[in-house]
Design brief:
The chain has 355 residues and is mainly α. Among the domains are: 34 residues, no CATH class; 145 residues, Tethering factor for nuclear proteasome Cut8/Sts1 (Methane Monooxygenase Hydroxylase, Chain G, domain 1, Up-down Bundle). It has 13 helices and no strands. The protein is elongated. Keywords: Nucleus. It comes from Papilio xuthus (Asian swallowtail butterfly).
Amino acid sequence: MEGAATPETGRRTRAALAEIPARLDRLRVTPLQPVTNLRELSPALPPSYLSPAPSPDELCIQQRGRKRQPVTWSPDIDTKRNSTFHSTIRTPPKNSPGRTSPPKLGVTLRSTPRKRLLLGETERIPLTPEKIDFSDLSTPQKFKITSPIKGTPPVKRFRLDKTVEEFRGPIDVALKGLSPTQLVNMIKRITQHHPEIEQEIRREMPTPDLAPLEEKLSYLKSNIFKSLPTSRLTSKTDSPAFSRASTHLAAFKKCLIEQGKILIDSQQWESVVKYVFLAWSYVRATPVWDNQPHNVHRKQCFKALINFCMTSLKKGSLNKDILIDTQDKLQDLVADSEEVQSCIKLIQGRLQDYL
């Protein structure tokens, strides 16, 4: 039969199984002892199965392994002193040529823990100011600091105003380029050298011109109204409109107060009263806001003008006609501010003196 096993087949199988242990022993490699020739231990292996012996460079690379940073690392402690590949030479600090750093006093170079432990108690001498020798200390010129006690600081020289050449053109053209302070100082010097000219200047001195002041107030008032919304569907006196005009309101108030202070300082009392009525009309024309706290700029302007009027009435010697005219005009301003009554009472007291 085809499927029955013959005695010859059984013998072949047993022979193949018996050869397996012998062949396995031939494939086994034992690297426990130094091997000089792998071919002697495994002569049955083909040359392609044998790897060449590693080179000395490969052995060094395998022994070195990966560089690892120690946990407790310090630049002053040589933790890699056992490594043959670690260089113990440190890079010197950079120092640009031609530049010398000043010596530092009382600074000791930091030593390693081993060196600090080897130091004895006798070598540890405390550093005190008495034991420091400052005789050989040389400081570079640019780092030298002068003491304010030993030497006085250099006096700053102010450039003196050079004498300007005499102006050959018309005098009125030259005066236009001078500031108010320059004009005041020039006239003051002239009157000191020539006292007789002072009386003539007083007679020819005109009253202050209020037209430039009014022009400035008119310009700032127009800025207030230009900042308001132009749409017919929105209100021009609500909070959003005030937020847009608040900056211009502050500028208007500042200008009004500064102009009044200039007239007060000049002691032109009649012009101060005229300025009060002129500026009052511009303040009255400013918007009245729906929210009452927003009208604080308007109230402060009225109060400043009333103070200017009170100062001119107290310090100025106004004649009777001006006092009566001022009283009549102040009666129309009571509706804007109740504080105007104080000015009216002061005028009435002055008019009693003329009776």
